[in-house]
Amino acid sequence: MNNLVANHRAVQVIAKTVLTELGPTIHRHDTEQTIAERAVQMMAERGVTETWYYACPAFVLLGSRSCLSISGRDYKPSSEPVGQCDLVTVDLSPQKQGAWGDCARSFAVEGGCYVAAPSNAAFKRGIEVEYSLHEAMRSHVTLTTTFEDLFLFANNEIRRQGFENLDFLGNVGHSIESSRDSRRYIEKGNKAALGDVGLFTFEPHIRERGGSWGFKHENIYYFSGENRAVEL
């Protein structure tokens, strides 16, 4: 387990670093395509040139497409510009020597530039709710929590906060595996325990009811020696 965590952590750290550095580079003339290309280049500069997610190492959605939920198998980046006020979500799926990273963040753009602390109430609320969902998940789950239980818990929390789940399959994450098709999803009907897998993602894709923006925040988690969910 220690080796498994260490191998995936090395790749996840690269994904997190790239996202941290990518955000401030986003500007009003960018498009999904230019942002995706820049993210891929930044990963390559850190020695990661492969992806486990179809042919989609960087899944970027912005503007009118931020609420879109499709498989990476069908994704094609658009040429819609960021503009003055926008929300940009970037989901990275790097792979190196069989180990996966999987990390997504939402970036607010105001006045044509990325802002770390948005003043737009909708942006601020969406980002805050994403963080609160991850905090609630960590407090709720144990080794014996089933994938289905987490699915029900997360969707109840999303509704309680006044948001809706946008995921096209309705799930909020999946196990980290050695092959894409082996993933087990956090979905209704999955009675397996989270403790049965080494690592899992939590990635609610949400929109405020009546709102226009789709928010993402994704991390990989594993269970520590104290049997608590810990961010990779």
Distance between the termini: 13 Å
Classify the secondary structure makeup into a structural class.
Answer: alpha+beta
Shape call: globular
DSSP strand content: 15-25%
CATH superfamily: Creatinase/methionine aminopeptidase superfamily
CATH-defined fold name: Creatine Amidinohydrolase
Describe the biggest sheet?
4 strands, antiparallel
Approximate helicity band: 25-40%
How many DSSP-defined strands? 13
Widest sheet, order of strands: 2-3-6-7
What does this protein look like?
- The chain is an alpha+beta fold and 232 residues long.
- The protein has a single domain, classed as Creatine Amidinohydrolase, CATH 3.90.230.
- The protein contains 4 helices and 13 strands.
- It has a 4-stranded antiparallel beta sheet. A 3-stranded antiparallel beta sheet has the order 1-4-5, with helices on one face.
- A hairpin with a 2-residue loop joins strand 6 and strand 7.
- Helix 1 packs across helix 2 and helix 3 runs antiparallel to helix 4.
- The radius of gyration is 17 Å and the shape is globular.
What is shown here, in short?
The protein is α+β, with helices and mostly antiparallel strands. It is built from 4 helices and 13 strands.
